[in-house]
């Protein structure tokens, strides 16, 4: 898909912190992120649970106000007044992972999809707009679904209703948080194909939040790998997922069935956003540091004590890793046993 060079959405230095209770340290859920999403582009935001990706996604929509940094949409900084956010959310819509939780069980499909139109005071033909959104989401003929309730639909149909509820406002950006995580494998491909078709037909941009690298391969133009509040590797999806440079990306890929070699078992505790370590934030669990590769490359001390800069939000391939920067990209992937990985999915 060809995209324009100017980003539709741009994030600069974004930070989101949550004060701890009863004197506990502040949790830095998003701790310095730059990210651009161009028109017509699908970006996958990938990482383990707890890495901050959902907080980042919600902050992009104004649902969680940032502690620092800024979000720019279509060239204008995002304002946080009720009126400004209402206008913005007509152009940028959220699709949640659990369609059962997203839909009111007492509302018909028609009312669920029409809700956004009513909130925003849609001046046109409501019935035609709802029918058009359902049809674009793959529920045809749409009138057959108007009076159904969520419990009368399959999981895939419910997710299509959620997507139709977002599409009915004709947004320019979708933020999809684990959009197929709760669906059966047989339905996942249909929903991913739907998102790709919507991008082609409507020119939609999308940020897809996922822990599934196979999903990222199948849907995204670009991938951003997040760990402990920061993006640690980013670039074109083919490049990042076939020749990963960051040890964390390599570990995530190593557990896929298609990956060569043995899975990488990460040591140490899962990430804690209230206790971000000095140096590389991944170093306590890093298989490269634990295995002596960083020491042999002369960067072990830097890994433990020298912080890495925030990766800029553009589309170039970047990595925040002292070790990866000491050697060519092909050698970096090969050293970790993940070079020329079979494309996931």
TrEMBL record:
<protein>
    <submittedName>
        <fullName>ABC transporter ATP-binding protein</fullName>
    </submittedName>
</protein>
<dbReference type="Pfam" id="PF08352">
    <property type="entry name" value="oligo_HPY"/>
</dbReference>
<dbReference type="InterPro" id="IPR003439">
    <property type="entry name" value="ABC_transporter-like_ATP-bd"/>
</dbReference>
<dbReference type="InterPro" id="IPR017871">
    <property type="entry name" value="ABC_transporter-like_CS"/>
</dbReference>
<dbReference type="InterPro" id="IPR050319">
    <property type="entry name" value="ABC_transp_ATP-bind"/>
</dbReference>
<dbReference type="Pfam" id="PF00005">
    <property type="entry name" value="ABC_tran"/>
</dbReference>
<dbReference type="InterPro" id="IPR013563">
    <property type="entry name" value="Oligopep_ABC_C"/>
</dbReference>
<dbReference type="GO" id="GO:0005524">
    <property type="term" value="F:ATP binding"/>
</dbReference>
<dbReference type="InterPro" id="IPR003593">
    <property type="entry name" value="AAA+_ATPase"/>
</dbReference>
<comment type="similarity">
    <text>Belongs to the ABC transporter superfamily.</text>
</comment>
<keyword id="KW-0067">ATP-binding</keyword>
<dbReference type="InterPro" id="IPR027417">
    <property type="entry name" value="P-loop_NTPase"/>
</dbReference>
<feature type="domain" description="ABC transporter">
    <location>
        <begin position="9"/>
        <end position="253"/>
    </location>
</feature>
<keyword id="KW-0813">Transport</keyword>
<keyword id="KW-0547">Nucleotide-binding</keyword>
């Amino acid at each position: 898909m060809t995209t324009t060079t100017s980003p539709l959405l741009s994030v600069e230095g974004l930070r989101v912190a949550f004060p701890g209770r009863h004197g506990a340290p502040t949790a830095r859920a998003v701790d310095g992120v730059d990210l651009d999403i161009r028109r017509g582009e699908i970006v996958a935001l990938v990482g383990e649970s707890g890495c901050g990706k959902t907080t980042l996604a919600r902050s992009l929509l104004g649902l969680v106000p940032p502690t620092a940094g800024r979000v720019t949409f279509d060239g204008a900084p995002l304002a946080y007044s009720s009126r400004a956010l209402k206008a913005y959310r007509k152009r940028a819509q959220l699709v949640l992972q659990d369609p059962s939780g997203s839909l009111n069980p007492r509302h018909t499909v028609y009312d669920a999809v029409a809700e956004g139109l009513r909130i925003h005071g849609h001046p046109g033909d409501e019935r035609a707009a709802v029918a058009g959104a359902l049809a674009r989401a793959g529920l045809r003929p749409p009138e057959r679904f108007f009076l159904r309730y969520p419990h009368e639909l399959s999981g895939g149909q419910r997710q299509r209703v959620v997507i139709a509820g977002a599409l009915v406002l004709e947004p320019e950006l979708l933020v999809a948080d684990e959009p197929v995580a709760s669906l059966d494998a047989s339905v996942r491909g249909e929903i991913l194909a739907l998102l790709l078709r919507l991008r082609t037909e409507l020119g939609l941009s999308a940020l897809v939040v996922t822990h599934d690298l196979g999903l990222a391969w199948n849907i995204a133009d670009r991938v951003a790998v997040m760990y402990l509040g920061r993006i640690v590797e980013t670039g074109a999806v083919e490049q990042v997922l076939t020749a990963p440079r960051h040890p964390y990306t390599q570990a995530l890929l190593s557990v896929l069935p298609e990956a060569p070699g043995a899975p990488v078992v990460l040591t140490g505790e899962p990430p804690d956003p209230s206790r971000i370590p000095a140096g590389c934030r991944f170093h306590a669990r890093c298989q490269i540091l634990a295995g002596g590769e960083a020491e042999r490359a002369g960067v072990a001390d830097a890994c433990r004590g020298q912080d890495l800069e925030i990766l800029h939000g553009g589309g170039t391939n970047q990595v925040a890793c002292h070790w990866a920067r000491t050697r060519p990209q092909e050698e970096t992937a090969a050293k970790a046993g993940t070079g020329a990985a079979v494309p996931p999915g």
